Prior knowledge:
Largest sheet: 7 strands, mixed
Radius of gyration: 63 Å
Shape: elongated
Structural class: alpha+beta
Number of helices: 7
Distance between the termini: 223 Å
Helix content: 55-70%
Order of helices and strands: HEEEEEEHEEEHHHHH
Amino acid sequence: MSKAVNPFSIGAFLVGSLALLVAAVLIFGGGQLFEKKTEYVVYFDSALNGLNVGAPVTLQGVQIGRVKEISLEMNEKSLQIAKPVVIEIDPERVLDTSGDSYPSVTGLQENRQRTKRLIDAGLKAQLKTQSLLTGLLYVEFNFYRNQALKLTGLNYKGLMELPSVPTTEDQIRNTADEILTKFRQLPLEAIVNDLSATLKAVRDLVTSDDLTKSRVALAKTLNETEKLVANMNHDLVPLLKNMNATVLDSQALVQQFTRDIKPVLLATEKTLNTANSVLLESKQSLNSVETLAAPDAPLWQSLDALRDAAQSTKELTDYLQRHPDSLIYGKE
């Protein structure tokens, strides 16, 4: 006979299992259940092959969140398709300049203002490949200040929208498509016809008689020019030799003239020095004559005394002529 099952044991087992499950979630989940995360929505024009729920969301290579939801919306009237991708960001993953967690916002309005500042700074999302082998994608945020801001304006569950940019592959593909489109718009048939007509005109010109005559005349002119240059070289060589000899003779003549003129220059310099000395002495003599010729000079005084003596002598002579006996008897 089987033993009855104790309901208390079953209840204790269930409670213990539930406690172990909660502990495992807390341990292996890193306490993420109690973390407050901020959700946003991003719309990508590219195909979402390889982007799965739980894919990393990074900011310049540092993971700050994960992909939470991927949906597909279709407008029945315009048949436009939108692919909203919901991401959740952990604000505690971003630190401020002091090293602490970035201050969390307390209200929806403050969150919108902070998000707008980031969008104005150029923050945009882009799909990138995690591995070329698996083809899995992740969401990378970066600041693309030169890229145009593009928002769909759609409302998905009241979440704030963050802008996105095409992937590098899509940008290359779009550029190639634009080039091909412009190439298809070219008037290729008219271009080919013009090119054909141009080639025909060139061929006719090359094979024309006028061009043949011109080539012959040009060859003749070149031959005559070559002969003229040769004759000029033949005539110029003796002329250059004569000019060289003349230059050498002129150089020798200048050297001889320099040797001959040097003594003359030395003698001239000596004569000039002598003349300069004579002039200096003449100047001194003139200065002495000017000194003697002054009215109050001793020379004039002596001449006055000599004149007076001569006058006295003349008077004495006249007197003696009239009175010769005065030499005996004296003057009366």
